[in-house]
Design brief:
The structure holds two protein chains of two kinds.
Chain A lengths: L2 E2 L2 E2 L2 E9 L2 H4 L21 H15 L1 H9 L3 E4 L7 H12 L7 E9 L5 E5 L2 E5 L6 H14 L7 H25 L3 E6 L2 H12 L30 H18 L13 E4 L12
Parallel strand pairs in A: 3-4, 3-5, 4-9, 5-8
Antiparallel strand pairs in A: 1-2, 2-3, 6-7
Helix pairs in contact in A: 3-8, 4-6, 6-7
Chain B lengths: L2 E7 L2 H4 L21 H15 L1 H9 L3 E4 L7 H12 L7 E9 L5 E5 L2 E5 L9 H10 L5 H22 L3 E6 L2 H11 L29 H18 L13 E4 L9
Parallel strand pairs in B: 1-2, 1-3, 2-7, 3-6
Antiparallel strand pairs in B: 4-5
Classes of the chains: A alpha/beta, B alpha/beta.
């Protein structure tokens, strides 16, 4: 039996595709041997430059590679992109993978959902995400306009408004899940906000064994040992905890997705760019 | 041999708005001055659904059945959500399915609100149009305003196209705004044979449009269906069924109500 383009005999290699926001990109795994300015935080003017310096480290040490190794997979493609909305993540996934067959791999998608309030639109050919607190005024205004519309100028209850945002999230999730299923790819999802509005998520998602309805670890976002003081995201220890919890869910509920043996190293690539013109198709 | 099913998606131009029963209308009836416009329109709706382009195209193609999901005022994303939530899991294994989508104005957007798909479009009279107005404001300083609107539209179109391909449904798109947007579609979706660049109502005379609402009337819808058919017959001949001798049936299912998820 020879090696044929990613296959060994009839055993396919295992590919993990991960989707999510900064928590999936790996933000927080700072190289603490570098000389950062005193009292460095996300508000510091040079914060963006330091993110750039640390980016490869983030991508290497976040939960995606840790989970890939624990599962015994051969490769990780990480779509995680800081500041992105769920709909933006779906758009990026579709643009990159809608025509891909990846037939040489057994593919599993793992999606860690972000804050459900985020939305996204194309602007200047780039997928722009709108968050509850943006860095630019025009994005803030657009976010508020959408919120005003859905909450009926605040007349509707917070819970009812949130349920509609989760419905939107659910549609985005369903699109990726459906396309994955049609391509014979596996699909699993987790949520960063289960400890805040898990009941509402449960109400909309219903009984779906491809989603973990428990807390994957984000209730410990304030645990000093697990978070980076510079940005408030998880650090290496925190992402190890997240990867362990994900692994347990998959091992207990989807044993068919497990690889043979855990690995110490894994081939990985970060593919989170969001500009339409820059997007590479697979 | 499987029966042939045509599923149509789009806005009011797919719902068939414009095919008024002119003889039964009140005197001086119009869409901007009549207080009972909504009521009269509702009464005419079954006529719209029967006489629009979907049934005409279905018959020309030799299909057995048409399901028309066209809904007046809907956006591309709203239409995609409706198709996705209502039709994704329908069992059409006994049918050869063709989905034809007539794309509408790309600036329209949609959200879930009060559990329903709510569409927003340019409407100065609507005091609760925050999301649409905010969206246009948000894009106003973009160097690629039109492209951005079309990219958003193209994205939702491609979701449904991808799903159709995976389910072995045939899929075609026509565009109400082909003249303005073809170059954008071609730039971002080159070599896509499922996108028809034709201007479907090109050179249609005035009498093909309803004087009440400026949509097409029966003559216009026949003209549009013929143009669509001619393009399909020329470019996608395998989708035409020349030997149809069965019974033609149709239904309209474009009302996004009670679509709780």
């Amino acid at each position: 039996m020879g090696i044929i383009k990613g296959k060994v005999g009839n055993l396919k290699k295992k590919l993990l595709i991960t989707m999510g926001c900064s928590h999936t990109e790996g933000l927080g795994c700072w190289d603490m041997t570098l000389n950062y300015p005193p009292r460095m935080t996300a508000q510091h003017p040079s914060f963006g430059e330091w993110i750039h310096v640390n980016k490869n480290r983030f991508h290497k040490l976040g939960w995606p590679n840790r989970l890939g190794k624990k599962l015994g997979y051969d490769k990780v493609m990480n779509l995680g992109f800081a500041g992105s909305a769920t709909s933006a993540q779906m758009k990026t996934f579709l643009l990159k993978f809608k025509d891909a067959s990846l037939s040489e791999y057994d593919v599993t998608i793992v999606w860690l959902f972000t804050d459900s309030l985020r939305t996204s639109y194309f602007r200047n050919g780039i997928i722009e995400s709108l968050l509850p607190s943006n860095h630019t005024l025009d994005k803030d205004i657009m976010f508020q306009d959408v919120y005003k519309f859905i909450s009926k100028k605040g007349e509707r209850s917070d819970v009812d408004t949130m349920l509609d945002y989760i419905r939107e999230e659910y549609i985005n999730r369903s699109v990726v899940k459906t396309i994955s299923e049609l391509k014979n790819w596996n699909f699993i999802s987790f949520h960063t906000r289960t400890h805040h509005y898990g009941n509402e998520i449960n109400k909309i998602y219903g009984n779906d064994n491809t989603h973990f309805f428990g807390d994957v670890g984000f209730s410990r976002e304030n645990d000093e040992e697990l978070i980076s003081k510079m940005c408030g995201h998880f650090n290496e220890k925190g992402y190890e905890m997240i990867a362990n919890n994900m692994y347990q869910f998959i091992n207990n509920n989807h044993p068919n997705l497990m690889g043979k043996t855990p690995k110490n190293e894994i081939e990985s690539t970060w593919i989170g760019e969001s500009s339409f013109d820059l997007i590479t198709k697979y | 041999m499987k029966k042939k099913l045509l599923i149509t998606l789009g806005c009011s131009f797919t719902e068939g708005v414009g095919c008024w029963d002119v003889e039964s209308l009140p005197k001086n009836f119009s869409n901007d001055s009549s207080v009972n416009y909504g009521m009269v329109k509702e009464k005419n709706r079954p006529r719209f659904h029967k006489l629009g382009w979907p049934n005409r195209l279905g018959k020309k193609l030799g299909y057995d059945k048409v399901i028309n999901l066209g809904l007046g005022g809907s956006s591309t994303s709203g239409q995609a959500k409706w198709f996705f939530t209502q039709y994704l899991n329908k069992d059409f294994s006994d049918w050869d399915v063709l989905v034809v989508w007539l794309l509408s104005e790309p600036s329209r957007i949609s959200f879930y609100k009060n559990t329903e798909i709510v569409n927003q479009m340019s409407n100065p009279a609507n005091s609760e149009n925050y999301a649409f107005d905010g969206y246009i404001k948000f894009l106003s300083d973009s160097n690629t305003f039109r492209e951005d609107l079309v990219l958003e539209q193209l994205f939702y179109r491609n979701i449904i196209k991808t799903i159709c391909e995976q389910k072995s449904y045939n899929f075609l798109t026509f565009n109400l705004y082909s003249e303005a947007h073809n170059h954008i579609f071609h730039r971002f979706n080159p070599n896509d044979k499922t996108y028809s660049p034709i201007h479907i109502d090109n050179a249609a005379p005035d009498e093909y449009f309803s004087k009440i609402c400026q949509h097409w009337n029966e003559l216009g819808y026949e003209y549009v269906a013929t143009n669509m058919f001619n393009w399909i017959n020329f470019k996608q001949k395998h989708l035409v069924n020349p030997n149809f001798d069965g019974e033609f049936t149709w239904e309209w299912d474009g009302e996004p109500l009670n679509n709780l998820i």
